[in-house]
């Protein structure tokens, strides 16, 4: 197989200069043709936010081996949208890879993560998306993770990830020699919670920084957080194409509609 068989878009929320993005590139550069589109600076925590009230600046960035790379002045999702609708509209990627994020995106953090937001945006446009994060804050070294990424991609590229689903991969906060393997798991409940820090402002008004602290919740023994704490790499399939709670829809539909219609004499036929 030649590397030109596949085309991957690489992105992140930590910025174009992130060492995690560089490690992700190193992991798959010999497997697929690569295009890189990432934020100009760190945009962590932007989730699915995108920019529509101001123009975006897209600039080419020097990258090795003639790889096409660009920085975007907006959010992580802006990067994916710009790539798919402008830069690569005539050469769409086979998969979007996001990361490697500096910090975990396990448990209940999935809806605020810009790293995962990139993978979700890809899936919403019918392109498979995989997000990678590392639960460690004592080092900016990511290169030791490279060898673990390609085997996952080889499995996920064929057969492809089902439409509307992404994979969220997290590496544990343990020394590599203590890695126990891979667990495919549901996402857990523990998450980052705001920990506001007040700062004095010259004009006297409220001035806070919403720092975060990790909040542990009781975890099922098949959750990603549980396995990460045991030293496993985790991969969680997240279905985002339709967020309807079908149990609630079934149980509440008639009563809710009847209650409303009685107030206004609507014909609920």
Description:
- Helix content is 26%, strand content 25%.
- With 269 residues, the chain is an alpha/beta fold.
- The protein has a single domain (3-243), classed as Survival protein SurE-like phosphatase/nucleotidase (Stationary-phase Survival Protein Sure Homolog, Chain: A), CATH 3.40.1210.10.
- The strands form 2 sheets. A 9-stranded mixed β-sheet has the order 3-4-2-1-5-6-7-11-8. Strands 9-10 form a two-stranded antiparallel sheet.
- Strand 6 (129-134), helix 4 and strand 7 (165-171) form a beta-alpha-beta unit.
- The longest helix has 19 residues, at 246-264.
- The chain is globular, with a radius of gyration of 21 Å.
Helix fraction, binned, reads 25-40%
Outline type = globular
Cα(first) to Cα(last) distance is 59 Å
Quote the CATH topology.
Answer: Stationary-phase Survival Protein Sure Homolog, Chain: A
Order of helices and strands: EHEEEHEHEHEEEEHEH
- CATH architecture annotation: 3-Layer(aba) Sandwich
Q: Strand content of the residues, in percent?
A: 15-25%
- The CATH homologous superfamily name equals Survival protein SurE-like phosphatase/nucleotidase
Question: How many helices in DSSP terms?
Answer: 6
Kindly give the count of domains.
1
């Amino acid at each position: 197989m030649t590397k030109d068989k596949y085309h991957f878009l690489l992105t992140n929320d930590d910025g174009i200069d992130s060492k995690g993005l560089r490690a992700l590139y190193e992991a798959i550069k010999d497997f697929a043709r690569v295009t890189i589109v990432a934020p100009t600076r760190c945009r962590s925590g932007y989730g699915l936010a995108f920019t529509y009230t101001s123009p975006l600046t897209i600039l080419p960035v020097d990258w090795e081996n003639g790889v096409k790379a660009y920085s975007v002045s907006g959010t992580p999702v802006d990067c994916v949208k710009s790539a798919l609708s402008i830069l690569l509209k005539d050469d769409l990627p086979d998969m979007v890879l996001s990361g490697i994020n500096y910090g975990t995106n396990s448990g209940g953090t999935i809806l605020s993560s810009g790293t995962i937001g990139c993978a979700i945006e890809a899936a919403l446009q019918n392109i498979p998306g995989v997000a990678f994060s590392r639960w460690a804050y004592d080092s900016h070294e990511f290169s030791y993770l490279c060898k673990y990424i390609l085997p996952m991609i080889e499995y996920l590229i064929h057969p492809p990830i089902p439409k509307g689903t992404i994979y969220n991969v997290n590496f544990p906060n343990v020394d590599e020699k203590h890695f126990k393997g891979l667990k495919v798991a549901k996402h857990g409940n523990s998450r980052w919670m705001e920990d506001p820090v007040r700062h004095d402002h010259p004009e006297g008004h409220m001035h806070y920084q919403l720092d975060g602290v990790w909040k542990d919740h009781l975890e099922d023994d098949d959750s990603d957080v549980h396995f990460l704490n045991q030293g496993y790499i985790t991969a969680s399939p997240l279905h985002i194409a339709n967020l309807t709670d079908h149990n609630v829809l079934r149980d509440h539909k008639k009563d809710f509609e009847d209650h409303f219609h009685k107030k206004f004499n609507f014909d609920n036929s």
